[in-house]
Structures are given as C-alpha cells and as structure tokens.
C-alpha cells in the first residue's frame, strides 16, 4: 500500500534574513573614517571611541605633553548628549515600523556629519585653527557617534557594536575552537574588525590627501545610503523593539 498523501498545508516559508548586520558593518566602516578624522585631524582626541578619551584625559591630567583636557572633555560631553537624545527617540519609535526609526536616525546623524564637513572646509589641520572650528567638529561628530551608539545598542544585534572591538576580539578568541568553543559568530566578529580597519585605512588616506571635509561628507553619504537600502527591505517594515 502506498504511503498516505501529505496534507495540503504548504511548509512555512523560511524567515527573511535581517539586513541589519550588513548595515551595521557599513556603519563600522564609517567609524574607522571618523576615528581617522578625529585622531589625525583634530589632535589626540577620539569622537567615536570614548575609552580612548578617558585614557587621554588621564595622560593630560598627569601633564603629559601633547594631550589636552578640553578636546577630550568636549568629545565626552557631546557623545553623552547624543546618546541621551537617541535613547529618548528610540523609545518614542518603539512599536512603530523599524524603517521609520532607522531613517529618522540616519537623517539626523547624516545632517550632523555634513554640517561638520562644511565647518571643516575652513579648518587648518597643521595649525589646529580656528579653535571654534576644532570644537565644533568635535561636538558635531561626538554627538553623532553618541547618537549612533545608543541607537545600535537598542537594536541588540550581537557582536556588531559598530564602534568598539575589545569585546568582539575577546569573544573571537574565547569562543574559538582553540579554546574549546564553537566559533560563535566568528565570521561576523572578523567582519566587524575588518570593517573598522578598512574605514581607518581609507580615512587616513583621505585626511592626508584632502583634509577633513571629504571623509566627513563620505561618512554622511554612507550612513544615509546604507540605511535607505536597509529600510527598503521587507523585514524593516516590522515593529521596532527599542526599550
């Protein structure tokens, strides 16, 4: 006797992969660009990596030549301000389509980078002048990166913070087969490291050859274009889950 016919129900379609990991890898590239702008063009200050600023503040407090308090403090305060605003915005968008949240965040971040690019057109890297331009660029990029960090944190995509790699590298080693682990998210972690490396290398070339305006303009364009493509994906029509 032949086997009974299968029921008429069709198998459930496999869920569409989220576009967020690809977007966050692109944002990781822009982090390298921003680090190149701040470290190579604005003196010894980070506007994306706040751990570095706390360390630089310690050096400055000890009187180490070449390290200044005010730029690091400006970067820290602007970063915290951006994170605070993003936290409030993320909660407002909770439950609404994720694409609305992503596009609003991208438009805001891009506007800050493009304003910084406009300010940077009159900035002299060698002389670090005018001082108003220096602190304006620090504040604008620091605020943008704080805003981004808080937004990405609420998206809760594992191993893609877009800005720091310490925990990423720790997980890559600790969860590797050499350590008896299962190589959890190894490809994603390595891609994150490669993305920031690539951004830093490209950013360094752009800063050395053309100054600060071009890399800042490129950062804004990449953020906006990448987020727009992500927003077109059907998965982005689902509700945002910011907490």
CA radius of gyration: 21 Å
Helix fraction?
55-70%
Number of helices: 8
SS-based class: mainly alpha
Q: Element order, helices and strands?
A: HHHHHHHH
Total beta strands: 0
Distance linking N and C termini: 57 Å
Q: How much β-strand is present in the residues?
A: under 5%
What summary fits the major beta sheet?
A: none
Give unreliable regions as ranges: none
The best one-word shape is globular
The average pLDDT score comes to: 88
Question: Can you offer a commentary on this structure?
Answer:
The protein has 243 residues and is mainly alpha-helical. The protein contains 8 helices and no strands. The mean pLDDT is 88.
Please describe the topology of this protein.
Blueprint: H1 20-41, H2 50-61, H3 69-93, H4 98-120, H5 131-155, H6 166-174, H7 186-210, H8 213-232
Helix pairs in contact: 1-5, 1-7, 1-8, 2-3, 3-4, 3-5, 4-5, 4-8, 6-7
Brief overview, please?
With 243 residues, this protein is an all-alpha fold. Helices cover 66% and strands 0% of the residues.
Structural features:
0% strand, globular, mainly alpha, 243 residues
């Amino acid at each position: 006797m032949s086997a009974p016919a299968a029921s008429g129900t069709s198998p459930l379609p496999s869920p569409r992969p989220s576009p967020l990991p690809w977007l966050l890898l692109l944002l990781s590239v822009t982090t390298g660009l921003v680090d190149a702008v701040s470290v190579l063009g604005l003196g010894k200050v980070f506007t994306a990596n706040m751990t570095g600023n706390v360390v630089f503040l310690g050096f400055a407090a000890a009187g180490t030549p070449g390290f200044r308090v005010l730029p690091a403090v400006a970067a820290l305060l602007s970063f915290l301000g951006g994170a605070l605003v993003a936290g409030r915005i993320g909660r407002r968008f909770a439950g609404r389509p994720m694409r609305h949240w992503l596009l609003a965040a991208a438009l805001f971040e891009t506007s800050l980078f493009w304003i910084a690019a406009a300010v940077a057109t009159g900035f002299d890297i060698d002389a670090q002048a005018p001082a108003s331009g220096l602190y304006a660029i620090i504040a604008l990029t620091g605020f943008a990166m704080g805003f981004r960090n808080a937004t990405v944190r609420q998206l809760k995509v594992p191993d893609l913070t877009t800005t720091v790699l310490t925990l990423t590298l720790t997980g890559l080693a600790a969860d590797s087969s050499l350590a008896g682990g299962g190589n959890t998210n190894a490809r994603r972690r390595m891609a994150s490291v490669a993305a920031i490396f690539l951004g830093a290398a490209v950013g360094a070339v752009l800063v050395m050859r053309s100054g600060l305006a071009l890399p800042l303009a490129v950062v804004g364009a990449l953020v906006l274009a990448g987020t727009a493509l992500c927003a077109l994906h059907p998965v982005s029509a689902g509700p945002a889950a910011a907490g």
